[in-house]
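<purpose> Linking amino acid order to shape
<body> The protein record starts here
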Amino acid sequence: MPMIRRGAQAPARWLLLACGILAMASTSRHASAADDGIVDVRTLPRPDGAVEDTSRAATHRVTYALPGGVAAASETTKKLLSAEGWVPYVYPLDENSSALVFKKGRQGLRASFTQTRGQSAVSYTPNRIYSNVPFPDGATELVFDETRPYLGCIAPGALDATSDFFGSEMAAMGWRRLTAETASRWPNADLGETVPNGVRAFYDHPGGDTTQFYKQKPVMLTLMRRDDGRTNVEIRVAPFALPQELEADDDMAGLPRPKPTKSARGLGGASSNKREMSAAAMAELPAVLAFYRRELAARGWHEDGKGPLAPGDDVAINISSVEETGVLRLGRKYDFTMISLTAQVKESALAARAKAKKEADARFLGDALGAAQQLIAADEARRKTQATSLSDAPLNVLADSKTPLPLPENAEGVRLEGGDGRLEFSSASSVKALSTFYRATLKGSGWKEQPSVINQPNMAVMAFSRGGKSISMTVMQMGSKVNVRANGSGLVTEAAKPAAAAEVQAKSSEPLKPDSDSQLPVPTQRSSKSFATTKIPGGEAPLRRELTASIPAPLQDVLAFYRAELSRLGWQEKTGGAAVSAERAKIDFTSPQGPATLTLGRTKGETTVNLAQKNADVAAKADIMPKEGQARLMLGNMGSSEASLTINKQTVKIAAGAGGPQSPKGPMLDLPPGKYPYALRMPGQPARTEALTVGAGEAWGLLVGPSGDVLPLQMY
């Protein structure tokens, strides 16, 4: 046949011929017949009354239903398959599994059981025997793993008969008795080792496993005579073929673990008071012991002599470090070295940790107080500077005003909601000038003022009544302007409110692009942006990060931008944590650092953005993490006199300096989510009333200033 040069194009007739040959080969016999190591599960026996589930039909699985419970179905299946020559066994360390595993020649089978609607569902799936070894007829207590292999059982025959059986059957399966020459590649191989009251032999399998996929390690066959005339049998990977020096795997519970292990588990962590690690290492005990002596010494542990042996232990060693004591236990089970390592923090270390935490808390609260004092001082200075631009000049009434409440002549941004009795505007006049204007104007119209305790240069609260109607007003300096808010039955108008026209949000002229220099995602197309962080004093990682921005784009475009950008950062939307409409969106996220929330709204034709992210690990270390489903409120007092705060029907005394360097531990309250009015009382001053809204999982600080002002700060 002429050869086709590599890289040349094959003529069409050659391609057609090749495809025809492949097609004939693929249909000449059933797929299951192509591999005699895999059983055709459709040919296996089934109990009388079994009904096949054809909805899950597959060539590699058969599922059928039987009346009754799982226990009865398992026993029936076991008897049925055993009668057909299938030998049941269990896996090492998996003796309590509800599934059944069987071996017949070089084929394996797994039968699994589930309970459903008063019936038992039974599934047959093939199980390849990669490393096949013979089972003695009538053997009991069979433990087998077809991948290494491992075999443990009790043969019914005497030692000599059992030895003859394995000698012939191992050879029939392709196993070759190791000699000094064939074992020369393993320098530590000792083929002359004897076993008291038994025999030992070593085999290799030059052909590899049954699939020819990997090179089979040599195995060690050990036969031992029993007092009852039977023979104990064990086949496992020869010790000299296992790793002699073990590498370290990932730690568990902050404790070292060797590689490889069949199973492992850990309890606790590196910062826990008690830690535990257990594993089944696929190595000999001396190699595992050498690994732990090396790894523990490298971590500052040293041996303190032998410990008491527990059942199953071959080795027990007491260990200790500067802060902990522990015990290392090693034992043998099947072909594993079983590991148990425990560590307990010493009482002296616990006391030192508690002291260090207390000192850290004191530093944190003291630094927080200093930061708050700086904020308050800066705020006071800013207000004073801004107040200089406000006018104290007397005001006149705005002519031709259609509002139920007179407006001053310099009112700006007037917003009236007559149906709800609300009015709001801003002014360049001072709080004092506006308060004087309304007291004089409303008094002249027959309104009677109710006494109020809040009448300060930067804020005044007034209440008026007339003829069974009322008006409440708040006048507050907001930067370089003063905001006036009024509400009450005296402002309700009879005319129906006109229906608000739905805002038409024009499509963006171009796709929103992320600003690569921003710590949290924000488009480059924006009219404003601010970014704030709350940090533990002296720490680098923030407790909370918050971004606010205004973007001249439709809300849906901004929402799509944030969903895409946050997803790239590994943020995931919480199930049921999204509320989206044409004018507003609020979505809760889980980010790699902790919980986060995205809030979008519409103002003046733009989409407003508030993106807040919390760092749960930092909050936990700072001991300000709220209880599940609640908010935490931390109280501080920078004044020289004791303060009293009443909130949620509780009155809390806040000592002078609480939350400061001299008395760092201020009072703390846990509150359900909601809006809470509170009243602050200080000696010689009228009560000050405000309201604070807190959400689940939030941490807030309420700090009382030297003049009696209260500064709320969201810390987490």
Remarks:
- The first helix runs from residue 12 to 27.
- The radius of gyration is 40 Å.
